[in-house]
Amino acid sequence: MAFGALGVPVTVLGAVTGLPATALGAMIGRQLPLIALFLPFYVMAVYGGMRSVRAIWPVLLVAGGSFAISQFVASNLLDYSLTDVLSSLGSLIATLLFLQVWKPKPDPEFAIRSETLEAERELTQAGAKAHIAPWQGWLPWLIVSAVVIVWTDLKVFTIGQQAIPWPGLHNAISITLYSGKPYAAVWTFQPLATGTAILVACVITALVVRLAPSEFFGCIGKTLRQVRLAVVTVMLIIGLAYLMNYSGLAYTLGKAVASTGYLFILLSPFLGWVAVMLSGSDTSGNALFGNLQVVAARQLNLNPILFAATNSSGGVMGKMISPQNIATGVSVTNLRGKEGVVFARTFWHSIILTILLALLVIVQQFVIPWVIPTVHG
Known about the structure:
- The strands form two sheets. Strands 1-4 form a two-stranded antiparallel sheet. Strands 2-3 form a two-stranded antiparallel ribbon.
- By secondary structure, it is mostly helical.
- The chain is globular and about 70 Å long.
- The relative contact order is 0.11.
- The chain folds into two domains: 5-111 and 212-371, no CATH class; 114-211, no CATH class.
- The protein has 14 helices and four strands.
- The chain has helices spanning 8-17, 21-28, 32-78, 83-101, 114-129, 139-153, 195-208, 213-247, 249-258, 264-279, 282-299, 304-319, 323-330, 339-366; strands spanning 162-165, 173-174, 182-183, 186-189.
């Protein structure tokens, strides 16, 4: 997702480009909702054919439409850091409520087999023996949503915040390509950064479900082993991004990309696509190529807010074919060892969606430029 955990990808995009994160979040929220509305129909057409689309189009419209509306409202009218939480929650609630009043016609081709029903009964009995209430499966998600909303609304993350100018670097470099002012290097230290909200939610969930301390810390250890490479990768890529910016490399590459002229408009979403495909992280993709997009856009007199946001939106289309994400997905299924097959089946869908995004960018730049947020000052 372009907004990620608590809006971190957008926050990083704002930091590396020097553009307001709120405007970037709003612009992303004026691109992706259109894709979100279309996506359920596209997926169902691919996997079930038009017959399936005709049979269940009402619920596809509700699922995609509620997600799109929630995504737009959260990113433009509320707080971009809550976008993914609120859009997911809004879509889930709307879809579940809709299915209480609307039922698709039974199709024998998709009937649940007897062995599947038996397996479900066994799982239910096992849960009853373990004294697991049916609603406990919802608890972690509900708790993390509530904590994140409160954490953000009360701005807990600002408590103890310190802005620290980096010695020997702050205002010591001037980038002359489109601005002669010194380049700031300020580290914002947040002891209660928004990621801490996830930890708090985790502890609350463990207490509510009465998870034993040994199991809790065992889960922490297992999680650390799973994400250790991803964490190091993100750290290194963000470090590389800042090195590229402060050395002038991003500006040089941006000027080179701008030399393609208006072909850059088609290339722009694919820059984000490539970055996220390689790194597996929208945060890393924004850090890597976000400022390059801004440099190229300014060289061509295009809107920098639009193209910085497009880097993030394009990254969403590349995430589905990221080797890291594919490996994570197949690890919990019977497709282990078939990562290449999954990549091959997904690749062209990723390309198609990125091209659709590029067409949307053209329309937003030249036909409806008023849709782009205005940055004052």
